[in-house]
C-alpha cells in the first residue's frame, strides 16, 4: 500500500479524532454550564467535575493530540499550508484548543475544590460555531 492509498485512512482517523474531541468539548461545556455559577461546589458536584476531568484526560485530550498530529500530517502531505482556507481553519482550531485548555484547567480546579464556574453559556455558542466553520472550511475549501 502506497502512502497515497493510505490517505483516506489518515483522513478518516483525523475526522474520527475530531468527532471524539468535539463530543468531549461540547459535553464538558454543557456540564460546566449546568453547575452553579460564581459559588463553591458541593461534594457531589466536585465529584462530577473530577469524573469529567478524568474523561477529559483519557478521551478528549488524546483526541485533540491526534487531531493536531493527523491534521498537520495531512496538510504537509497535501501541500495545504499556503492555502487561505487552511490558515483560517487553523485560527478556529487554535481557539478550540485554547478553550479546551481553559476548561480542562477549570475542571481540575473544581475537582480540587478551588475553582468557580463563570460564563459558560456563551462558550457553548462559540464552540459550536467554531466547529461548524472548521467543517465548512475543510469540506468546501472556499478560498
UniProtKB/TrEMBL annotation:
Family: Belongs to the HemJ family.
Protein name: Protoporphyrinogen IX oxidase
Organism superkingdom: Bacteria
GO molecular function, one term: metal ion binding
Subcellular location field: Cell membrane
Any single Pfam family the record assigns to this protein: UPF0093
Gene Ontology CC, one term: plasma membrane
Keyword Transmembrane listed: yes
Biological process terms in GO annotation: protoporphyrinogen IX biosynthetic process
Pathway membership: Porphyrin-containing compound metabolism; protoporphyrin-IX biosynthesis; protoporphyrin-IX from protoporphyrinogen-IX: step 1/1
Organism from which the protein derives: Roseibium suaedae
EC number: 1.3.99.-
Signal peptide extent: none
Its membrane topology: Multi-pass membrane protein
Cofactor entry: heme b
Main localization category: membrane
Biological role stated in the UniProt entry: Catalyzes the oxidation of protoporphyrinogen IX to protoporphyrin IX.
Keyword Oxidoreductase (UniProt): yes
Enzyme superclass (EC): oxidoreductase
Keywords: Cell membrane, Heme, Iron, Membrane, Metal-binding, Oxidoreductase, Transmembrane, Transmembrane helix
Reactions listed under catalytic activity: protoporphyrinogen IX + 3 A = protoporphyrin IX + 3 AH2
Transmembrane segment boundaries: 12-35, 63-82, 88-109, 121-140
Free-text comment on the cofactor: Binds 1 heme b (iron(II)-protoporphyrin IX) group per subunit.
